[in-house]
């Protein structure tokens, strides 16, 4: 049995394949197609949806990883699809390069992260897929397809964020930037004050986000400013970093969830205590050390992208919902932003996006909470994150994406026999 990290999806594949070369991927896809089996690629299993689940061939690309090529003049690096994001700092350091932006988790593979729309925060920065300038895929008939800005370029807006529906990605070329530092300022603040200034706050610094603790009026804000790579570092002291990032942010959160399940009435008081213990520090460090946070507490997540200007109203609606339903929610709600982009299935396609993410502990049933929040998000034209839980299908999703039909047409071209299909893709893209 295969299970994802959040324990929200599982499957029993007939075969598990672990190729070590592109040629072996080709052989597997051709064999599966000839025998009537489907093929699904699995990365690190950090998607909460069953996007990688299959009863056919589960293709693990963990052995196709590392550097394939580097163009130092252009700052472009080609990586094997199974390369994990946490490997990239060491890979890129010798070339003086870094990713332009990152999310707060780095366990995913590069192919899985771009294929599901992984993003960080920053009003001037797109999701990870916007950094892709080329890739190589094995498509439905087993042939190899190279897509770059100069070769089959018309396919880039589709394959950059392809949901695993267009083929098996075997390598990805990223446009990197010169290595840089981030000056981080983390503060506890008042929710209403932050919402009143959200537009200004979200564009005043390079990377802004905040976490609201339900049942309180408090948020933890994070404001990160980019500095030159040779700027002076002022990293967190190892003890202080362990205390907040490991003990408080993870150990205490795990305890809070456990207590919340046993004694839900204690949750508001626990959340108020949490707001006083975390998120009041300044430091400067390498970009990846600021972007990424350790996540050891398993959870399930739903995240929606809405127009950035709608975030304050939507979050107020969620606060009212939680109060009216009498729920006790231990996990903070995360708010981030991203620049508009042109990738066809990007949640930020054509509009500056604000992201609102809700979570529940993996042992809790999230459905009632998530469905109610989803209804609020849909009222603001919300687009669900492709790798996080949601309850929409192709009928409701198609109107949200101007190029939805174009993407389906590319799918028909690259995988007419639906070698890469599974129930999740049938639900969100149609048969």
UniProtKB/TrEMBL annotation:
One of its GO terms (molecular function) is FAD binding. One of its GO terms (cellular component) is membrane. Keywords: FAD, Flavoprotein, Oxidoreductase. SUPFAM superfamilies: FAD-binding/transporter-associated domain-like, FAD-linked oxidases, C-terminal domain. It comes from the Bacteria. PROSITE patterns: FAD_PCMH (PS51387). Signal peptide: none annotated. Residues 8-179 form the FAD-binding PCMH-type domain. PANTHER family: D-ARABINONO-1,4-LACTONE OXIDASE (PTHR43762:SF1), L-GULONOLACTONE OXIDASE (PTHR43762). This is FAD-binding protein. It comes from Lacisediminihabitans changchengi. The lineage of its organism: Bacteria, Bacillati, Actinomycetota, Actinomycetes, Micrococcales.
